[in-house]
Amino acid sequence: MPVTNIHYHDLIRRDADVLWHPYAAAPVPIAPYAVKSASGTRLKLHDGRELIDGMSSWWAVIHGYNQPRLNAAMTAQLQDMAHVMFGGLTHEPAVLLAEKLLAITPPGLAKVFFSDSGSVAVEIGLKMALQYWVSRGLPEKKRLLSLRQGYHGDTFGAMSVCDPVNGMHYLFSDLVMPQIFAEAPRIAFSGSWDESAGDEIAALIETHHHELAAVILEPVVQGAGGMRFYHPAYLKKVRELCDRFDVLLLADEIATGFGRTGELFACNHARITPDILCLGKALTGGYMSFAATLCQDFISETIAHGDPGVLMHGPTFMANPLACSVALASIDLLEESNWRNSISNIEGWLRTGLEPCRTLPAVRDVRVLGAIGVVETRDLVAVEKVQEILVANGVWLRPFAHLCYTMPPFIASEDEIKQITAAIYSALA
Known about the structure:
By secondary structure, the protein is an alpha/beta fold. It contains 13 helices and 16 strands. The chain has helices at about 10-20, 55-60, 70-80, 90-105, 120-135, 155-160, 200-210, 230-245, 295-305, 320-335, 340-355, 385-390, 415-429, and strands spanning about 35-40, 40-45, 50-55, 110-115, 145, 180, 210-215, 220, 230, 250, 275-280, 290-295, 365-370, 370-375, 395, 405.
């Protein structure tokens, strides 16, 4: 039954009757805003209002909504097949996409395993690491070292490597595998590097390397755990430590991949290649839920020669042709655009527009990197009140905890960034 004629308030009521939203109570205490359509950077609500989407729908819609090239890629693929199982079968979009990903990601990665979401990509990366050591005859190397204030997803393996206090998963602390945590990197992205900043994680790796399967981290940008930007030299230091003590390095670039930080991948800021790389979110330009876990050859070869000789994971919708096709089109569109210039411009506009927030008594810090702008508040953000002000100013953002932040589409104009930053100032003032 089409929903185009449902009255706005009736739609919100019916939503509360049947739906459960992410990180929300059911029934929903804060009524959601109903979207009727989206185009470019704009969300059109059922009641006729238009909002600039300063969130890129949780960082994924980098080219904007209703993009003709991406629409065409999905439509063309529909003429051949929408889906086919990947167990024992293959198809051209999957092969082409895997080849493309290996060509643009840090050098040395050699195999691609597709899945349905970022959390699952992390689960697969953890399985790769654990199964690698079993295949090498070292099953005792089964723990992970993660960073505090990190976030890697909501499934059980991913929860275990999220910040155990601030990672939104404290209710499950007795049920997940206990891992080892290093303090969050303390030197900011643009700060002066001090070699001692790596002492703590160096000591942890040296002490626990006999039981460590991998170090997992978000390169340069810690996302949902606090929106923190840290020095690339820290990432390079961890790569060196993993090599020295025979520990795998797993980089979670689900949020940072595909240009968001000013480099195509955040690992490039430190010029390092992880052993395992997780991608998602912007992989399809926000069109479909899709993810990938990449690894170096020695991992896949070691697992192939172990018992049972195969990676023990198999998503039903693995390498979905529609998702592969739109991902290919999204990467082509990104490569053909002057994306570095776009990110540089957005970074400059965000710095200028958010700077006045530093004068507000409620604000602890303002930070910008690439197409990411963050205002950290002293107290918890009053989400409902702040969102009302943002929406009244024609902007959609999703504040949480102590953060009001924006990760706009790469096509956002200077005027749109000005409107976003002005709305943030108004809301926090």
